[in-house]
Design a protein that fits this description.
Elements (H helix, E strand, L loop, with lengths): L8 E5 L1 H15 L4 E5 L1 H5 L3 H8 L6 E4 L2 H10 L5 E3 L8 H6 L3 E4 L2 H10 L5 E8 L7 E2 L3 H14 L2 E7 L11 H13 L10 E5 L1 H6 L7 E2 L25 E13 L4 E2 L5 E2 L4 E6 L16 E4 L2 E6 L7 E4 L11 E8 L2 E3 L1 H7 L4 H7 L6 E3 L8
The structure holds pyridoxal-5'-phosphate (PLP).
């Protein structure tokens, strides 16, 4: 990578912060539980290759992905640790997953049959998902005696190994008591399994659950968003440690103009200058993943000062009111997410302004924004 960043807009990834967030999860759950680092969707948009390279020295037990192709990509980067595919595999992906030696997450007998049939070489590992209320995947916790016997029979007779059992909380970030209800259902199901619990890796907790309820950490935790700087439970009604920010979104100021009173900006002319204003055009838009919702509500940081986004966000451009930043010039860097000087716009603030969640903001950042590692370049204005 060149030392000089010449691109119009980019995502800056702070790998030291990522490592610290990982260590914070380890600190919260203690030494015993394994950590399955969730790197699905290209590590929430930040680049699975660099995330894995950063986490490997910290020795996570393994990685979690959503698709067979994501698991294959990790193998291509050289990952030898277990890789669990948490999304149910479509029949067309089973062979790919098997060839890469991934672990499948099994939710019904049909998919276990397919997994066993794909085991033409050595034995293939699988985890069983138990649905305790999430409703999108998993065997029903109420029917555990039936399905668990059938699962065990296949594991005994075919070339598959039952290595794990998991569930997923639907409201680990919330203030209600549903997680304890789901945990009870999970425990009830575990008590009915025909195999010894000691032979299975038991796991349930995502980031929010791991940080709030270490008593649910079981044998492994599955952190995702916290590693990438998203607050895992902003509205939990109790203090939950904040992650260190990992992603910053920055864009060049490409035009600066003085707008006389009455000037309008953006599609729909939704912002009108009441007096003389100074407008700066930023080289970033919803085509880069900057939510269109931020028009007339969001902000940016220019020269360490927070300035409002005025008018609607276009596909490739957005405009800020820099009346209060007279030194701003074309070529300067604006920050849409992250810090500049003492000013900071957090990922979660942006998500709230855009009426969504940090996960969607991060995974929505388009490939048009190059990902650059913090410290890998020097700004030259
Ligand atoms: C994505 C995912 C996680 C991680 O959730 P976060 O809220 O990002 O920590 C954990 N478990 C499963 C099954 C997931 O799909």
């Amino acid at each position: 990578m060149s030392n000089d960043l010449q691109t119009r807009a980019w995502v800056e990834v702070d790998l030291e912060a990522l490592r610290e967030n990982y260590r914070a999860v380890r600190g919260a759950v203690g030494d015993r539980p394994a950590i399955i680092a969730m790197v699905k969707a290209d590590a929430y948009g930040l680049g699975a290759d660099r995330v894995v390279r950063t986490l490997e020295p910290l020795e996570p037990w393994g990685y979690g992905v959503a698709t067979a192709d994501e698991g294959v990509a990790l193998r291509d980067f050289g990952v030898r640790r277990p890789i669990v595919v948490f999304g149910p595999l479509p029949p067309t992906s089973v062979e790919t997953a098997a060839r890469a030696g991934l672990s499948a997450t099994i939710s019904n007998m049909d998919s276990l049959e397919r997994w066993a049939s794909a085991a033409t070489g050595g034995r293939l590992d699988f985890h069983v998902e138990i649905d305790t209320g999430m409703g999108r995947a998993g065997f029903d916790w109420r029917d555990t005696p039936e399905w668990s016997r059938a699962v065990q029979e296949i594991a005994a007779a075919r070339r598959v190994r039952w290595t794990g059992v998991m569930t997923h909380f639907h409201s680990a970030d919330g203030a209600d008591a549903s997680a304890s209800v789901q945990w009870e259902r999970f425990q009830e199901a575990l008590g009915q399994l025909p195999v010894s619990r000691a032979d299975l890796m038991v796991h349930a907790a995502n980031s929010a659950a791991a940080l709030r309820w270490p008593q649910y950490a079981a044998d492994a935790v599955r952190p995702g968003i916290f590693l990438y700087g998203g607050h895992p439970a902003n509205h939990a009604g109790e203090p939950v440690p904040a992650p260190r920010p990992v992603a910053a979104v920055r864009a060049r100021l490409v035009l600066v103009r003085d707008a006389p009173p009455g000037s309008t900006v953006g599609y729909g002319a939704t912002h009108v200058a009441k007096e003389w204003e100074r407008w700066g055009t930023l080289a970033i838009g919803y085509g880069d993943g900057l939510p269109r919702r931020l028009g007339n509500r969001g902000s940016a940081i220019v020269h360490g000062r927070i300035v409002p986004l005025v008018g609607r966000i276009s596909m490739d451009m957005a405009v800020v009111d820099i009346t209060g930043v007279p030194e701003a010039r074309a070529g300067d860097v604006a920050t849409l997410i992250g810090s500049d000087g003492d000013a900071c716009i957090t990922l979660d603030e942006v998500a709230e302004q855009a009426e969504t969640i940090s996960y969607e903001i991060l995974t929505g950042l388009r490939p048009r924004l190059p990902r650059v590692e913090k410290g890998a370049w020097t700004e030259r204005n």
